[in-house]
Every structure is written in structure tokens, then in C-alpha cells.
Design a protein that fits this description.
Layout: H1 4-17, H2 31-46, H3 50-53, H4 71-76, E1 79-87, E2 92-99, E3 104-110, H5 118-123, E4 129-131, E5 145-147, H6 148-171, E6 176-182, H7 184-198, E7 203-208, H8 216-225, E8 232-237, E9 261-264, E10 276-279, H9 298-309, E11 311-312, E12 314-315, H10 318-321, H11 325-329
Parallel strand pairs: 3-6, 6-7, 7-8, 8-9
Antiparallel strand pairs: 1-2, 2-3, 4-5, 9-10, 11-12
Bound molecules: 2-acetamido-2-deoxy-beta-D-glucopyranose (3 copies).
Length: 331
């Protein structure tokens, strides 16, 4: 059992490592921004539904049949331009779709199936990083270290996704490209978005419950791509544990996030624009989602913070929870 003395030591260590509050903007967001976040959260969740990612090309994006929640998207009759499944050694899945009402070309990536096996999926987060060339001249601190699995997955799907984007953009030159995803899919969507920007596209990235993708160089690089090459909307919810992973103290404390973070500050109930706080800051930010750690270590954070991971405005991974067992366990 956890003795009182140990608790004091843990608290002391937590305090010792806490850094002073960084620059932090606590304004809310506009109603229009909130509407956009709620829409993209539905597109992100729809990547868990097998109807959309397996043989889905030509269909409209749907979630209800598989137990997911995307009524706003279903009403729009968004056509899937390309669905992809089991791509590359990372077996990445997702879809590219066209939303004519909002003039968007949407790339949505499915993460490893977290609902079916959260502990396995989350321990996957601790695997190695490698130096990459993504950051170019911004490669000054750590060699642009990126999580191997996320980086491989983004590279696996890039040619497929970009071929579809280029064709549909040629026919719809005024449309905007967005990448999105939840959880591990969010991490892949962020790196994919950064690479599409490098190819000359302007891409807005909407990620929900995204873990850290790498070290400081990559955060600098993605921050500096905005706003000229597209905006970064990294949405977190309350004490969701996944954006707090991998822990900073793994690999010498250099796992980092790009900012701003759009933090849903309320745990339950209907999110209002004023409930979403824009958090700016860097490395070991003590506000927003990071500031909601228990200070009692990752195991306690995991127990406390997993429920919030599955709710981004509404349940986001309903299709994952209902995935056929054989499919879910392969993820
Ligand atoms: C669906 O896609 C899978 C692989 O993506 C393929 O093996 C299967 O034959 C397809 N099924 C149909 C009905 O097209
Ligand atoms: C898509 O278009 C971009 C920008 O024009 C270009 O850099 C890229 O090579 C193209 N990719 C594919 C797969 O067609
Ligand atoms: C909010 O949700 C958490 C779990 O997600 C639950 O334990 C808690 O009771 C809820 N609080 C309220 C006020 O509904």
C-alpha cells in the first residue's frame, strides 16, 4: 500500500520538478471556433468506424450503425474520396473526404485501437524515438527527435493521402485541407499535416487527445509553420492522460508539445465557448491539461484521466468500442 510517508516524498518530488507558471492566455474561444472543433471531433471519431475506412470510397461518412457519434457529419452527406486500411508496417487506417458545405478536404486518421486495449496501446507510447529531417533548419536542439511509430505511420500514408488531395484540390481550388485524428491517430495526423505543409499545402491540423510526438525541435518546427502554412488546433480535455504521455522525464525530459493548446476545462456536460481556454507556453507547461496531473505519478494519472480521453464534446471513439473483436485486437 501507499504509505503516507511515500505520499509526502512523491508530493515533494512533484513540487521540486514543477516549473513556474509560463506565459498563459486564458481567454475563451469564439462560438464559430467551438462549432468547428465539434465538427472536426466528429470527423476524427469517424475514423474509428470500419464502414468509413475499409472499402468506404464513394460512401458518405457515417457512424451511427457502428455505435459512433457523428450526427452533424452524417447530415452533411460528406463523400469519402478514399478510404485506406492496413497501410504499411504500421497498418495505419483512415479516410480522405470532401465536405462541400464547409469547403474542406478532410484527412482523418484512426489510431491504434485504444478502447479495446488501453494499457497496451498506451504502453506503445514509450517506444523509441529517432532523429529525423522534418525540422530542417529548426533542427537545432535534439536532431528533431520523433516517436518512431508515429513518424513511420505518417510516412506510410503520405503518398496515398497526398495523391487524393492533389486530385481533389485541382478540382476544388478554394477548399481548405485539414488533418484530424483522436489519440494515437491525432499524433499521426499532426506529423502528416506538417509533411503536407512541407510539400507546399496549407493545412489546418485539428487533433484531439494527442500524445507528444517528439522532442523540442519538432514542437518549434510545427509552431513556426503556423499561421502561414496553416493553423494548429491541439485540443485537450480536462485531465485526459494521453496528452500527458509520454512522460516528460522519459528520455531525459525532452518530450514536448507544440502550442497553443485548446483546453476543454470542464469535465462533464455541454461545453460552452467560455469553457475552452487557450493555453500558450512551452516545455513543462503547468497550465491546461498538463496542469491537471495528480502529481502522484503516471499510474494514478492513468486511472483518473482515462475517462476524459474518450469524451471530446461527445463520446469520440464509440465505433472503436464496438469494433469487431478480431479487427480491434489487430490494431
Ligand atoms: C474490403 O477491403 C479488404 C481490404 O481492405 C478486402 O480484403 C476485401 O476484399 C474488401 N471487401 C469488399 C467486399 O470489397
Ligand atoms: C501533390 O502536390 C504537391 C504540391 O503541388 C507536390 O509537392 C506533391 O509532390 C504532390 N504529391 C503527389 C503525390 O502528387
Ligand atoms: C463527471 O465524469 C466523471 C467520469 O468521467 C464522473 O466520475 C463524475 O461523477 C462526473 N461528474 C458529474 C458532476 O457528473
Amino acid at each position: 500500500m501507499f504509505s503516507f510517508r511515500n505520499l509526502i516524498i512523491v508530493l515533494f518530488l512533484a513540487l521540486a520538478y514543477a516549473e513556474p507558471l509560463k506565459v498563459r492566455d486564458t481567454r475563451g474561444i469564439t462560438q464559430a471556433e467551438l462549432n468547428q472543433f465539434e465538427l472536426l471531433a466528429q470527423y476524427a471519431g469517424a475514423a474509428y468506424c470500419y464502414d468509413n475506412i475499409q472499402n468506404g470510397t464513394g460512401n458518405t461518412v457515417a457512424c451511427t450503425r457502428e455505435g459512433g457519434y457523428c450526427p452533424g457529419v452524417e447530415a452533411l452527406q460528406t463523400v469519402i474520396l478514399d478510404s485506406f486500411f492496413d497501410v504499411g508496417i504500421t497498418q495505419t487506417a483512415g479516410y480522405v473526404a470532401i465536405d462541400r458545405s464547409h469547403q474542406l478536404i478532410i484527412v482523418s486518421i484512426q489510431g491504434t485501437s485504444i478502447a479495446s486495449n488501453p494499457i497496451d496501446a498506451l504502453t506503445d507510447l514509450n517506444i523509441a524515438r529517432s532523429k529525423t529531417t522534418l525540422c530542417g533548419k529548426a533542427n537545432t536542439v535534439d536532431g528533431c527527435l520523433i516517436h518512431d511509430g508515429f513518424w513511420q505511420a505518417a510516412n506510410d500514408v503520405l503518398p496515398i493521402v497526398e495523391t487524393t488531395i492533389n486530385i481533389s484540390l485541382a478540382m476544388n481550388p478554394d477548399f481548405k485541407i485539414v488533418t484530424t485524428g483522436h489519440s494515437l491517430g491525432a499524433a499521426i495526423a499532426a506529423l502528416l499535416g506538417a509533411k503536407l505543409r512541407d510539400d507546399g499545402h496549407i493545412v489546418d491540423m485539428y487533433t484531439f487527445g494527442q500524445p507528444s510526438v517528439g522532442a523540442v525541435d519538432v514542437s518549434n518546427y510545427i509552431e513556426n509553420q503556423a499561421p502561414a502554412q496553416g493553423n494548429n488546433y491541439r485540443v485537450t480535455h480536462y485531465n485526459d492522460v494521453v496528452p500527458q504521455l509520454p512522460e516528460h522525464n522519459l528520455d531525459w525530459g525532452t518530450w514536448d508539445h507544440y502550442y497553443p493548446e485548446f483546453w476543454i476545462s470542464r469535465q462533464n456536460g455541454t461545453v460552452q465557448a467560455s469553457d475552452m481556454l487557450v493555453v500558450t507556453g512551452r516545455l513543462y507547461e503547468t497550465g491546461g491539461n498538463e496542469g491537471d496531473k495528480t502529481g502522484l505519478g503516471v499510474v494514478v494519472d492513468l486511472i483518473e484521466g482515462l475517462p476524459a480521453h474518450y469524451v471530446y464534446f461527445n463520446p469520440i471513439s464509440g465505433c472503436d468500442a464496438n469494433a469487431p473483436a478480431a479487427v480491434a485486437s489487430s490494431g
